Amino acid sequence: MADICKGCFNLILDYCGENITLPTGLAEGTKVWWEITDKFGEVWRGSAIVDDEGEIDIEVDQFPEGLFNPHAGNFNFIIGAEGDDAPSLPLCDIIDLTICGTEYECITFSFTKTNYVEDITEPYYPDTTTP
Fold first, then answer.
1. How far is it, in rounded angstroms, from Cα 79 to Cα 92?
2. Element (H or E) spanning 108, and its range?
3. Angle at 88 between CA 84 and CA 92, to 5 degrees
4. Does some domain include residue 86?
5. Is residue 47 part of a domain?
6. What is the enclosing helix (H) or strand (E) of 15?
7. Are 22 and 56 contacting, i.e. CB atoms less than 8 angstroms apart?
8. Which of 65, 70, 72 is nearest to 113 (CA)?
9. I want to staple 107 with a disulfide (CB 3.0 to 4.6 A). Which of 2, 65, 77, 125 is the partner?
10. Apex CA 129: angle with CA 125 and CA 131, to 5°?
11. pLDDT tens figures, 84-124
12. Are 99 and 23 in contact (CB under 8 A)?
């Protein structure tokens, strides 16, 4: 049985401009109806199918261009229904997400951009002998 933590799981994603992959812990093949809310209260809704790892992919091109970026702040993600039939709105019956053996009501996610330094051939050690 999963531990219960009725809050949001915090997730920082590396921004790549493609799909957003979010864990759900739900069974493979389950159709879910999700809702994403930005820091201004703007809401987007859609559906997805849970993959064999218990995750869903949300296509970034469903959203305004540039919405998901390292400066956008936090987004809140919930699953409000399962099944083939579109749910009534708003999504009120939130389905718990099981992540790493713990149940959460939602995921709060944001983005970071990882900068990679290329062609490093030797490690750099600062000179600590001079004041």
1. 9
2. strand 106-112
3. 105
4. yes
5. yes
6. none
7. yes
8. 70
9. 77
10. 115
11. 777 666 677 788 888 988 999 999 999 987 666 665 556 55
12. yes
What is the Cα gyration radius of the chain?
19
Residue with tokens 């809310």: 37
What residue numbers bound the domain in which 57 lies? Answer: 3-112
pLDDT tens by residue, 15-72: 776 789 999 999 999 889 899 999 999 999 899 999 999 999 999 888 999 899 888 9
**H or E, element range at 56:** strand 55-58
For residue 117, being part of any structural domain is answered with: no
Q: Position of tokens 């229904």?
A: 81
Overall number of domains in the chain:
1
Query: Residue 125 pLDDT > 70, yes or no?
Result: no
Q: Which amino acid is at 121?
A: T
The residue behind tokens 């709105």 is 89
Q: Cβ distance 39 to 109 under 8 Å?
A: no
Contact 95, 80 (CB under 8 A): yes
